[in-house]
Amino acid sequence: MTKTMARLQARAKKTYRKKTSNMRRGGAAVGAGLKPAPTKGGKKPARSAKPRSKQTFHFSNFRAEDFRTDGLRTYAKYRDLGMSEATSGLLQAHVIRLVPPCDPAVVSKQHYHDVELQMIYVLKGWIKGDYDGKVVTLREGAAWLQPPRIEHRVLDYSDDCELLEIVVPANFKTVELE
User: Fold this and answer.
1) Distance CA 142, CA 139 (A)
2) Cis peptide, bond prior to residue 101, ω within 30 of zero
3) Which domains does the chain have, with CATH numbers?
4) Residue 122 in contact with residue 87, Cβ under 8 Å?
């Protein structure tokens, strides 16, 4: 019985190696129930028309002195996470530390960003905003996606408000509506 089991296991290993070797060469594993990806007219799938941006490995450790006041808004300090350079301009990522106290006369300016994607995550505190006429308060742990060119404005925020913002592409225009 033990010899029979050993022979069956050896045969199974041999068959498995043959199937995976065939798959690495681009073929289907015969008898394994695996099929190649469907294609149109039997042709290989076309590569995407856009070549991918060159990306490099990058990390950014926290340093308080990295927060700068030369960003988009005067009521915010920005800590660039270096993703724009690492992705050849594909995206921008930064931590935004809103400066207390909130002054609605300064922060509540209707605007939009000419972007493909804008995602914000609340790291600390809370922020209240008007997004295309819908007023929402987002607290620590909340995330939201702002569709391209959505009209919005900040209404209020906590004294400890910090946000992570990811924007595609890295360079974009902000259009003030007021």
Assistant:
1) 6
2) yes
3) 2-41 (no CATH), 64-176 (2.60.120.10)
4) no
134/56: higher pLDDT: 134
Q: Average pLDDT of 13-23?
A: 50
Burial 20-47 (b: 16+ CB within 10 A, else e): eeeeeeeeebeeeeeeeeeeeeeeeeee
Work out the pLDDT band at 38, boundaries 50, 70, 90.
low
Q: How far is CA 51 from the centre of its chain?
A: 19
CB proximity list for 6: less than 8 A, separation 6 or greater: none
Give me the pLDDT at residue 74, please.
85
Instruction: Check residue 33 and report its DSSP letter.
Output: T
DSSP-assigned states of every residue in 90-106: S-EEEEEEEPSSP-HHH
d(CA 86, CA 109): 32
Rounded CA-CA distance 119/93 in Å is 10
| pLDDT at 53 (0 to 100) | 73
Q: What is the DSSP letter of 44?
A: P
